[in-house]
Amino acid sequence: MIDAEKDDYPIRLMCTLLGISRSGYYAWKEREPSMRAREEENLKSEILEIHRQSRGTYGSPRIHNELNKTRPQEQTINRKRVERIMREEGLCGRNKRRTRRTTNPESERPPAPDLLARKFEVDEPDRVWVADITYIWTLQGWIYLAVIIDLFSRRVVGWSLADHMRKELVLNALKAALGHRRPSMRGLIFHSDRGSQYTSMAHRDALERAGATASMSRPGECWDNAVAESFFSTFKIEMLYRNDFKTKQEARTAIAEWIGVFYNHQRHHSTIGYATPAGFEESYYASQLAEVA
Fold first, then answer.
1. Is the same domain home to 134 and 80?
2. Using CB atoms within 10 A of its CB, is residue 133 exposed (0-12), middle (13-18) or buried (19+)?
3. What is the pTM of this model?
């Protein structure tokens, strides 16, 4: 307390009021911090850096995992200690807000059956993709985002932004995904909701040309597409709600950077063992090469 208030009050006066000697205060000032205090400061610095690199989005579970990832078993950090330091430093993850639906049930073709059946664990890339649409407000009006996610790695393999929710929005996302991945010979399942964009003739034809099979959630069952819903929840909590976009171009730039750089290559995903989506795929392909060799 004396050290914190020394610029506002005389040290002699504070020592007298608190009943301690000035020599005791100066001895404390010159004393080396204890081993425990140094460890605490180092740990605090690590936590602050991990939180900063996560763009202020990680809560205690992910920070705890990051801290212990490279530590030997006997040096692991207790979760409650991480929570305490984060609380003292005013650090926290992002919390959820309510969202609204973007599904338009009108269709050009009958909906496809639900082939996924909530089986969200996939053992190799490009076997199942899930897709969905959300909306983003800017001071210039709404823009809409369509994404396609590989269930194996949770990587966003294609996305598209537009001023509308017409079928071209999802067609462009599909075109981007197919341009990067080319999974036509692997029996790809493409799962979405029953929105008119996905049931349109143009989108169903594009899937057929790619050798992919359409799959769609049952009416009113949002959990049938839970992975896509979860992605958009993360996107809104960790990026969208933290920004007020003045222009549509500003939003487009920020979203492309968040998905293409941060989410796919830097953000650690709990479902895949706290690996990044890109890193998880790299490990998979490295293991495949090792087995062949």
1. no
2. buried
3. 0.67
